[in-house]
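Work Package 3 (structural annotation) set out to generate three-dimensional models for the target panel prioritized at the project kickoff. During this period the team completed the workflow that converts sequence records into discrete structure tokens, so that structures can be stored uniformly alongside our sequence database. As a representative example, we reproduce one entry of 189 residues exactly as it appears in the project archive.
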Amino acid sequence: MLIVGSVLAVLLSLGPVTMVRLGVVVVVVTAIVVCSAAWREVANVRRRAEKRAGDALAQHGEKLREERRRHVAVMGVLSDRAEGLRVQADRAAGRAAALAAVNAGLRDEVAEVRTENAMLGELILDARHDRDLARAEASELGADNDELRSERDGLLAENAELRLVNHQLEVELMTRDQVADVVELRRRA
């Protein structure tokens, strides 16, 4: 349009004054038409750019909303897991406290068994001492051999019984010590 108006204005400027005036009018009209077309095109380009920017912002906003929804869902799952772990930790603490109480009771029982074992050891020593005294008296006094044998057999039987009881207590003590060790290991684990 600009080229046509320019050519027409040049051709009109070669003619008489009225034609020159008409050429000036053609130039002015052509300039106005071209400027208005250019402004319209600039406005269209600006609108398209704004629309693209608005669409991009809307898409970005939608992506952010979707990401926020996913984050909320993940936070819900993590909160549930944390609560579950908190409950498990509370249960484990309760079990640990109960096992500690059982362990303390077992330690008390072990101490009692050791005390009983020590007392039984003293009884065994006393029995051995009594047996030795009886032997000494028997040899010194020349007591009847059958009577001494009978006493000796009784003491030996008593000694055997005491050894059996002592052995059973030692086994029980070892078993309790092993149980206490297992409980201690579990508590540490």
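The helical segments are 2-13, 17-141, 145-188.
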